[in-house]
Specification:
Layout (H helix, E strand, L loop, with lengths): L9 E7 L5 E7 L5 E9 L3 E8 L5 E8 H6 L3 H13 L9 E6 L3 E6 L5 E2 H8 L4 H20 L2 E2 L8 E3 L5 E3 L6 E2 L9 H5 L20 H6 L4 H17 L9 H9 L11 H10 L10 H5 L11 H5 L7
Antiparallel strand pairs: 1-2, 3-4, 4-5, 5-7, 6-7, 8-10, 9-12, 10-11
Helix pairs in contact: 4-7, 7-9
Bound molecules: adenosine-5'-triphosphate.
Amino acid sequence: EEWKDRGAAVSLRREVDSEGRTVIRSVKKGVRDFSFGRILGEGSYSTVYLATDRQTLREYAIKVLEKKHIIKEKKIKYVNIEKNTLNRLTEHPGIVRLYYTFQDEQSLYYVLDLCSGGELLGVLKKTGTFDVECTRFYGAQILDAIEYMHSRGVIHRDLKPENLLLDDQMHVKVTDFGTAKLLPDPRDPRPQQDVAGQNGQDDRTASFVGTAEYVSPELLTDKTAGKPSDLWAFGCIIYQLLVGRPPFKGPTEYLTFQKIVALEYDFPAGFPPAARDLVERCLVLDPNRRLTVEHIKNHEFFDGHPFGKNLWRMKAPRLR
Ligand code: ATP
C-alpha cells in the first residue's frame, strides 16, 4: 500500500491481434524491459545504474531503492516526495525527468534521464574555478530551472553543486527532490488539501533539511523555507563557481550556521564586480529583501544572456 503507484507511466506498443488487426496497447514498463549496465553512483539509500531500454535502445539512469532499507531508515516519506515532485516537473530541460517507475518484491525503480556528464561539483573540482562566461551560462541554466520549479509550486531546499547534474551536452539537470517542499500546484484545479497534504505545509514545523553550507538564514532562525531560500542557495553557488569554494564554510556544521546567520563571508581580490553585486543581493538575511528570479534575470551580471528556449539551445562554453 505504501508504494502505491499513482499515475504510473506507460508506453504505447503497436501489436497485431489474433485477427490480424493492428492494435495500440498501453504497456507498463517493468524491470525486464531494460538491460542494466554499470553503476553510475551510489547514494545512502540507492544505487544508480546505466540502463538501456531493450525496445528503443535509449539509455537511461535507473535509480534502485531497496524497500527494506528505506523502511528501516524511515525514509518512505522522502521517497514519495521525490516521486511526486518529479511527476510534477516533466516539461523542463533543466530538471532530471522521471519516465517510469516500477517495483518488484525487493526494490523500487525510477527510470531517469541519463546525466553522463556527472555532477557540476566534479567538473568544478577539476577546473578549480569557472571563468565569468561559464559562470554566467551555468548560472542562467540553474536560474531557469529554479524559475520553472517555483512556477510549478516546488521549492527544492537543497540546491548545491552535487545536486546539479550534467547531460551529454554538458547542460544542467537539477536532481535530488527528496527534501523538496510541494506547494499547491498553481495549475492544479483540485482543492489544495488534496494535493500538498502529504508533506505538511506548515513551514514552522520543518526540521533542518538541506546541506549546511547552502542553508538559508531563515531556516536556521525561523525554521521557514520558501522560494527565497532557493535563491540564497543560488547566490552561494554563483560565488562557489567563481571562487572554488562556498562562501560560508566552518570546521563544523554549527560554526557554518553561525557564519550564515552573521552573514560572515568575504570576496577574494579580483572577484568580478557585477558578480559581486549579484551575490551580495542574493545573500541578504531578510528573505523578503532578497532578489527574486525576475530581478536576477535582469541583473547586469546576466546582461543580454538568453533565458528560456534559446538558453537550452546554446552550446555549453568550454570549461575554464
Ligand atoms: P544521498 O542519498 O546519500 O544524498 P544521492 O542523493 O547522491 O545520495 P542518488 O540520487 O541516488 O543519491 O545518486 C547516487 C549517485 O548516482 C550520485 O553520485 C549521482 O551522481 C549519480 N546519479 C544520480 N542520478 C543520476 C543520473 N540521472 N544520471 C547519472 N548519474 C546519476
